[in-house]
What does this fold into?
Amino acid sequence: MSVIAAPTPAVPSLARRGVLSWITTTDHKRIGILYMTTAIGFFFVAGMMAMLMRAQLAQPNQSIITAHQYAQLFTLHGTVMIFFFVVPFALGLANFLIPLQIGAPDMAFPRLNAFTYWIFLIGALTVMSGAAVNGGAADTGWFAYAPLSGIKISSGLGQDLWIIGLLMASISSILTSINFLTTVFIYRAPGMTMWRIPIFTWEMVATSLLVLMAFPSLAADLSMLLIDRHLGGHFFDPAAGGSPVLYQHLFWFFGHPEVYIMILPYFGVVTEVICTFSRKPVFGYTGMVLSAFAIAGLSMGVWAHHMFTTGAVSDPFFAAVSLLIAVPTGIKFFNWIGTMWRGSITFQTPMLFAIGFLLNFLDGGITGVMVASPPIDFHAKDSYFLVSHFHYVIGGGSLFAIFAAMFFWFPKVFGVKLNEVWGKVCFVCEFVGFNLTFFPMYFLGVMGMPRRVYTYPNLPGWGLLNSLATLGAAIMAVGVILFIVNVIASVKRHTPVPDDPWGGFTLEWATSSPPPPNNFDWLPPIRSERPVFDLHHPELAKTGR
Amino acid sequence: MHLDWTVFTYAGLAVFAIVGGLIVFPLLVWRRRGDALPPQFRRNVPIEIVTTVIPLIMVVLLFILSYRVESAVEHLAPVPSVVVNVVGFRWSWQFSYPGTDVLVAGTPQRGPEMVIPLNETTRINLTSVDVNHRFWVPAFLFKRDAIAGMNNAFDWHPERLGSFPGRCAEFCGLEHAFMTFTVRVVSPADFKRWLLEQRSRSTAYRKTPQ
It folds into this structure.
């Protein structure tokens, strides 16, 4: 590249209104908003699917929905939550925040940025459209193991739409990651050295690298499945020398890094929130950054812990690497604790959700260490123990961080603060409801309940524990409804907020709320990873590093 | 395997208590009281080293335990006393005892029963004829995949009499929920008797004109 010019200033986009201005926008803030609102929309849809499943499982031997409907529901619930909610919300948040946090006017490739959003949306709608075709949506689970997903058994169009939709989502994520990396590497403001970029942006750098390594494997796997289904391929057909285990290798080579793609951005979110509400700099900045890359690196070498029971992989190797991930994750926990240590802590809604994240994720992390041990996995695998474990990571972890992010950055994005009282009520509903839903599932799993069954026999304790889980899910749903009402009411009331309502540290709090088209009319001097704090406390400003 | 579950569970509870306590403690003690800024420290290298090394030691110890337990669990006896071939299909299981005519196949409505002797080694050879299944007996804390084109072998050495329910633990289609079976552990003498009964039954079946 010969010239590194600032991106062409987009047409002042936030001033323009109307649907067309949103469709044609290349402003990273608008694209971020599109990503996040779309992702939240999909969260509501997939949440309703979960409610239907919990209703069906509330009591033994119920038949509110059929086996086929149940299979479509858990397939779409998993697919939508993972590919169309947790990941794109992070991409949207990063779209909005990265240029602001590094003092850039926009992303490096604004048009590519718009393209990635629209191809994600089309991919998501393609997957969902399976519900409207003959034979219904894909019904083979979110990892669609061959040969179950092969043409012989799953001949429906729904499975093809699922494959094609996810291929589009893969391309979208890969291109977005290239955009993020380019932006962070070359569009930083003067003074914003790599060792001064905020932790959230660092976590997105690690996430983007993971996307670039992991998603091509998914794209390859899905393409091979499509070739097997329609072009006479035999990649996964044992009768013709293919291997069903190959599908699993390629899938989990993507699928485990995907778990970290879903959590690293949210490590960044809770770091920013905890710093702000403890009024302290992050404890162990270097450790935070290095641990993110350690987690990303290790996560590329653990995929076969999803395959301990296949008898086709070296269990001890994958167990060892999986257990090792506990070390950098532990560093993060101790750094969060160190950040709160001797702080000046307040309990606004974002902080409550961040604390909920810490406790839930600790729980999910510990059971993650358990299932990393093959002898435990031999019992826990694909039982409700595992269902509970990964929901503690993605639901209790990522989802809580998403709520923290929404309450924290809502004033910056829309210039309106969400109601604090109702926010706290929402937190209580989510925290109580979440733990009531998923804690009983650990016991159900140990007692022998497998996942993905649409009904279960009336064995001692099973009915009671499942009823508790359904009750918890209902409480979570109430919390989500309160959140929606809170957003509508707060936007309607439209009480103006200052640019920096929380006393934030990073550059996005230096500009107006919402930020002007090219983000900054002026920039404070950048001499540490928290320039806005330095601006307000010149007597404490750290000079250089 | 019980040992692995016990140690990991107690270690997990201890870590949850300690780290959870360390998370909650600052929230109770250092709430905001006024506008004065708290101390703005950024690092404490000795503490950071300690909090890296302690988890590292823990996972190394847990790995050693896990490795030893798994080696014992996966150990295959040179000469098992009984062999059972298990085939998973949509949506039930077929058990056969090589060297005999005994063959038991179930349906989604009625899962098959596998009979094995107490305190003796039973080798299970596991495969599938269609999609992936997973053969799980919760009471034995054990499951293994049934994959077409692959044979998965493992040994059971039951030390308790009784009937133990088993299930498929890999989603394999609509009736996955009903892909159940039972493992009945009987005394070696009862096992021999059962085998003879089954044989005469299958011989009688074969003598019936087609």
About this structure: Confidence is low (pLDDT under 50) at residues 1-13 of chain A.
